[in-house]
Specification:
This protein has helices spanning 8-16, 21-39, 47-59, 116-124, 232-240, 252-255, and strands at 2-6, 67-71, 74-78, 84-86, 97-101, 106-111, 143-147, 166-170, 175-177, 183-184, 196-197, 211-214, 283-288, 290-292. It has 293 residues and is α/β, with parallel strands linked by helices. Strands 7-8-6-5-10 form a five-stranded mixed β-sheet, covered by helices on one side. InterPro entries: Alkaline_phosphatase_core_sf (IPR017850), Phosphodiest/P_Trfase (IPR002591).
Length: 293
Amino acid sequence: MFLIRYAGVENTLRLFGSNSDEGRQAISRSDLYVHDLQTKKSLLLFSSLYSQFQQKLEERGLFESTNLVVISGHGLRSVDSEEQFYIEECLADFSKITKIVNSHSMMMVFTDPDELDEVFFELKVCDQWAPMGDYDEGDNPLVSVYRTSELPEKFHWKSSRFMPGIIIMTRPGATVLTRELPSIPAGDEHARDIRQTGGWDNDNVEMRGVFMARGPAFKTNHESLPINMVDVYQVLLNILGVEPPHRHNGSWANVEDLLSSGWESRTSPDSISSSTSTARSFLCLILLCMLSY
């Protein structure tokens, strides 16, 4: 098994957006790279390292039996330039914030324990993202401010010892930034200029990533229902003939239908015949960091 991480799509879409010439070119290039992987052409992106690997597979008659998986962690969405906010405009005293982690779609706000309630109140009632005009109470607010203990269960964050006391989440398209507060990653004067980003609520369809696969383990011309990122781990182990060494959060029922006959029932290396185990254990995983819908 080997993993190739390609960030060209993510970086370009963040800077230029998916409707730009640069964005379309980046997506076309990634399509070409994946196509070349499957048609045995020379692959400039991965230089001679891939060529040597491909040659060794072909020499051993393993190229056609190698499974190729292309995956992205999540999708990207365009940023609404009219819905960008700075957290400083909500605060009377910046010294009450010890640090900020992340920005844009979600922000973690760390404070001294004694200051948490006051900072939470200031953020909760902040005028800059308060509902205005013909606001429908059924609409999602532009910005939601949570005590970590009150976060929705679906995020699986509220009991983490690494979380701060306050979490800010924005509606898809809206972003929250910092100019002056200590932050991780460090604040960037160009942060307001990004065209697309991710990290919003994963129930939003635009946050869905990509999962594409071909090879002996997978059905052909098959379109699956959406799967969860935690489901992928068990698919890879199944292809390699490895039993999961520990409990995980994936659901086999979500991915079983992806696999071709015989592969969906493989539960241990013992179920693979010795004559085919080597030929079927190769797996190429390409991580296209993020793709845009």
